[in-house]
Specification:
Elements: H1 3-66, H2 69-99, H3 102-111
């Protein structure tokens, strides 16, 4: 048998043995280990959300129970007023970022010579 044929058969046998060994290690050692860890993570993830929800509900309920009633009167009214002010500012700023402010609209009308924008219902 020629030397090159012996060398080729030896290389192919070595590559085959290494690949079979690596595949067996992956299939019978690494993959079951990773599957078990992933299953544990999924199970832990399922338990986290309900636990957090219960904790938040309990914390909010405890906090509200501990507040004196007189503190709620002024605080709730003031915080509601601030929340409404914040919400209206957010709403107006949000719309103006899409539509532009009144000053931008006026400038664009002056620039166009007083003609309403295309597609507008203004006459």
């Amino acid at each position: 048998m020629p030397f090159w044929l012996t060398l080729t058969i030896q290389i192919l046998a070595t590559v085959g043995a290494v690949l079979v060994t690596l595949w067996g290690f992956w299939r019978f050692v690494v993959r079951p280990y990773l599957d078990a860890r992933v299953a544990e993570l999924i199970e832990a993830g399922r338990d986290i959300e309900p636990a957090v929800t219960r904790g938040v509900k309990k914390g909010v309920a405890d906090t509200i129970r501990e507040l004196p009633e007189s503190a709620l009167d002024g605080t709730v009214k003031e915080s509601t007023r601030q929340f409404l002010k914040f919400g209206s500012g957010l709403f107006e700023n949000g719309l103006s970022s899409f539509l532009g402010s009144a000053a931008d609209l006026e400038r664009s009308r002056q620039k166009d010579g007083g003609n309403p924008p295309k597609g507008s219902t203004d006459s």
